[in-house]
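Quick one, probably user error.
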């Protein structure tokens, strides 16, 4: 059985999912891959993990860096898990490129190279957005691409974190932020 609860954020409603003990999903309603880890059997319920996650989100949306991470359930392939663990280490208010993540994964695996495109697929299928901060991953040239919640939310989240946006741009608009 999986459990869900909703959280109203300043950027829209968020659905949280849990196995009862750990957080297994966090999606902006309507985002790409919404509910990707949810089973058909689910129930709305108040759980300590949801209270802890709501506290994390309250701190985050107040413009502060949370000093804890709720327990996470990352049921996925070893490759995606490795990418998500790197994303968990991207500091608040900073960004990392797909290429840099690919280089780190290649180093971990003793491979000469790793595809940044493959990393992009793992980033985009992250079911615990915000806490596993896929919004902090950008293109090598500073392009803001690939956020399942939408580029507008990615910009708002990086702005909330007071990230340096001076070198970043939205490809469709071709302009700096």
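Nope, works fine. Designed sequence:
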């Amino acid at each position: 059985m999986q459990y869900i609860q909703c959280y109203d954020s300043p950027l829209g409603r968020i659905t949280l999912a849990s196995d009862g003990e750990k957080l297994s999903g966090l999606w902006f309603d309507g985002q790409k891959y919404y509910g990707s880890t949810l089973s058909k059997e689910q129930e709305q319920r108040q759980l300590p993990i949801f209270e802890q996650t709501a506290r994390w989100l309250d701190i985050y949306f107040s413009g502060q860096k949370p000093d804890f991470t709720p327990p996470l359930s990352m049921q996925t392939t070893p490759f995606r898990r490795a990418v998500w663990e790197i994303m968990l280490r991207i500091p608040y208010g900073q960004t990392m490129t797909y290429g840099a993540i690919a280089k780190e994964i290649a180093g971990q695996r003793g491979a000469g190279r790793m595809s940044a495109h493959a990393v992009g697929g793992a980033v985009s299928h992250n079911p615990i957005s915000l806490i596993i901060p896929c919004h902090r991953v950008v293109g090598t040239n500073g392009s803001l691409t690939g956020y399942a919640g939408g580029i507008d939310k990615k910009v708002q989240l990086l702005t909330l974190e007071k990230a340096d946006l001076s070198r970043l741009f939205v490809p469709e608009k071709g302009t700096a932020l």
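The CA atoms of residues 42 and 129 lie 20 Å apart.
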